[in-house]
Amino acid sequence: MKRFHMHVGVTDLDKSIAFYSSLFGAEPSVVKADYAKWLLDDPRINFAISMRDDATKGIEHVGLQVEYKAELEEVFGRLKAADRPVLDEGATTCCYAQSEKSWIADPDGVVWEAFLTEGESTTYGGSPDLNQLASANAASSACCAPQLTPAKTSCC
Length: 156
Description:
- This protein is an alpha+beta fold.
- The chain has one domain (3-133): Roll (2,3-Dihydroxybiphenyl 1,2-Dioxygenase, domain 1), CATH 3.10.180.10.
- It is built from two helices and eight strands.
- It has helices at residues 13-24, 69-81; strands spanning 3-9, 30-32, 35-41, 44-50, 58-66, 86-94, 97-105, 111-120.
- An eight-stranded mixed beta sheet has the order 2-3-4-1-5-8-7-6, with helices on one face.
- A hairpin with a 5-residue loop joins β7 and β8.
- The chain is globular.
- The relative contact order is 0.19.
- Keywords: Dioxygenase, Oxidoreductase.
- This is Catechol 2,3-dioxygenase.
């Protein structure tokens, strides 16, 4: 079964943990000095926050987490069929987890990842080269996701 994923950059981890724990009615399943993650079933989401000097504040990226290799292959196939450049990162360490993942950016530069978590890690992880996504908004300086230029909006 797939789970929606969202990663948000924050400025104060403790305040954000308190806020999201109240919002979700649950404590995070993972807490590190610079990171927290909730694996919720209602709503079914992998919601992560991090406080990193080089990361975007606000929504960094979204994605789909799968539970099985066959689901990952299905989602990878969908990424490749989306007619956009795909970065197949393969096995990697990201967000204190060992994962297999790929990345894609939508036509407006919103970065998506598709991944299967295969275990824990004691380190946050490295940075994928997301320049291959050919998005004007993508950069490769943040772990697990590019830094994005804030979207310009004209309305709420």
